[in-house]
Amino acid sequence: MKIKIIPCLQDNYSYLIIDEVNNTACVIDPSEADPIIKYLENNQIKLKFILNTHHHYDHVGGNKKLKEKYGARVIGYKEDQERIPEIDILLSDQQTWMHENFEAKIIYIPGHTLGHICFYFYREESVFTGDTLFSLGCGRIFEGTYSQMFDSLMKLKKLPQNTKIYCGHEYTKKNSDFCLIHDANNENLITKIHDIDTKLRSGLPTIPSTIKDELECNIFLKSSNVETFSKLRDLKDNF
Ligand code: ZN
Ligand code: FE
């Protein structure tokens, strides 16, 4: 299986998980249809499933057009069936979803929205975290509570350290500026920022990160309690 990063809109990432044996793919959070269609057509791949982490427009904007073109089925969290356009398959927390070679565990991670989930493709050692965990940051709390978001990040922290993190946006550089202010002597962070700068200078995504990197460098994951976490989240909202 191959994971292809597709930049969308201003700073979104959609992802294709490609089964190279069957020439089929799942797309995670298609912000818009056209860049996805372009890649699929150029590579003669058939889209089978559309997986949504949450209902925001920049994560589901391509659902309708992609479903119409490929007959792909839309998959999302069961409690969000009213908000995810064209949804067909309803998922529950801790469920394992599988079809042919696609296999993912669903983990419910509310906070950014009340219906946010992530897709943990354990065989690919990859997790798709939407707008909950970013590289060196976390999502804004729009619908949930601080403690829900903190608990959701705790769930992600428990994944194996070599797990690759594919998140919904390229926010890494701005996030790194915030981490550095609050954690100026963190050698791991400084090393990671060098790596980030090199990638961005070459026009490359800073994604994927890893759970190991984020445990070492992400100030939100380093918060040991919900009070510290909440203070940082407030500061970041105005950063
Ligand atoms: Zn969002
Ligand atoms: Fe988003």
How is this structure best described in words?
With 239 residues, the chain is of the alpha/beta class. The protein has one domain (2-90, 98-107, 115-237): Ribonuclease Z/Hydroxyacylglutathione hydrolase-like (Metallo-beta-lactamase, Chain A). The protein contains 9 helices and 14 strands. It has helices spanning 34-42, 57-60, 63-70, 146-157, 172-182, 187-201, 211-217, 219-222, 226-237, and strands at residues 2-8, 12-19, 24-28, 46-51, 73-77, 87-91, 96-99, 102-108, 117-121, 126-130, 133-134, 137-138, 164-167, 209-210. The chain has a 6-stranded mixed beta sheet. A hairpin with an 8-residue loop joins strand 8 and strand 9 (117-121). The longest helix is centred in the last third of the chain and has 15 residues, at 187-201. It is globular. The model has no long low-confidence stretch (mean pLDDT 98). The structure holds zinc ion and fe (iii) ion. The site of zinc ion has 4 residues, from loops.
